[in-house]
Amino acid sequence: MTLSKEQMDLYIRDHLLPHLSLEHSSYHFELTDKGQRNIIIHLSIEGFKPLVIKGTRKKHKAEHMWEGTQHLRCHGINAPEIIYMDLSRKTFRKFGYYFIYEERIDGKICEELDDAMDSLHLVATLFARMHAIGRTRWGRLNGGSRFGFWKYLKGNIRKKLWRLTANNKLFTSEQCNLYFKWFTSSKDTIKSHKGFSLSHCDPHMHNILISDANDVYLLDNESLRYLPSSIDFYKLQYHFCQDNAEKINRWQQAYFSHLSEDEVEEFNRSKDFFNCYVLLGFAQSEAYNLSQLKDKAENYIPYPLSLKRALDLIEETITGQHAHVR
Q1: What is the pTM of this model?
Q2: Helices 307-318 and 173-184: crossing angle, nearest 10°?
Q3: CATH code of the domain covering residue 46
Q4: Do 208 and 85 share a structural domain?
């Protein structure tokens, strides 16, 4: 279902403004093309703070976004305030979306910056602060478990390798077995991991905003979990730095400057495992995307790493030939 401007106008006038006790206020809204899977609308209301309206077709996603945003703000991590959510069946039947209304922060997402590396120290500081928020249970914000983390990782690795093999004919069963054997050789190290960090889990360039006041805000916070901080760390490294050794060095120095010697030592114990775990996720996603493009594959621009490069980096780590320290 495509949401028309006329439908949105009617909804804002007859539903949102009365809810905010602003029935007689003038307003203006603009449909944007910023949403990848959702709709994003900028709304300005006379006498009220600027808003972003996010429309999602999945109710649980909106609920998790609320939960994640509240959790971050409770711990002093910047995230736009959610003003109101409309999760009614009536709204979904009529418009095909559930709506989240959050404050609009003046600034730019990292993807829009002339050089995102200029804000690297700000991003590193925020994520180091967030990762310092920890607990002994892994998983969802409400709940989690003290047990089963290795089983969860092992299942994810097996699933990613299966998808990679299914979508990339050049990735052989022998490679699949080699990778799985290498990952599982780290079982004792991973099972001895001390605690879990608050993690964004989807920290790409569209989900990090630098405000006009030079503050960092986290967006689309529905995927928050307590996991090893290394997973966020390597996702951020490749999104910001790709495979540029100089940029990677700057990123690592900026992030590790906020950690104690003991924390760096703990990080280094499992760095190769989680680096390759993140790279495997990139590789299986790229393999799937390319398999869907078919004859358009030659025009596909990989982000942040190509399938081949992600696999090469894993191979180099597994064979002990990786050149620069991670």
Answers
A1: 0.93
A2: 50
A3: 3.30.200.20
A4: no
**Residues in CB range of 304: below 8 A, 6 or more apart:** 204, 238, 239, 242, 282
Residues 51 and 143 in one domain: no
Tell me whether residue 324 is in a domain: no
How far apart are alpha carbons 142 and 148 in whole angstroms?
Answer: 17
Report the CATH number that the domain containing residue 168 is assigned in CATH: 3.90.1200.10
Question: By the 8 A CB rule, do 32 and 100 touch?
Answer: no
What dihedral angle (degrees, nearest 10) is formed by the CA atoms of 129, 255, 68, 100? 120
Do 255 and 309 fall into the same domain?
yes
d(CA 286, CA 138): 27
pLDDT tens-digit readout, 239-283: 999 999 999 999 999 999 999 999 999 999 999 999 999 999 999
Element (H, E) at 280: helix 271-293
Tell whether the model's pLDDT for residue 326 goes beyond 50: no
Q: Are residues 123 and 137 in the same domain?
A: yes
DSSP string, 89-130: HHHHHHHS-EEEEEEPPSEEEGGGSS-GGGGHHHHHHHHHHH
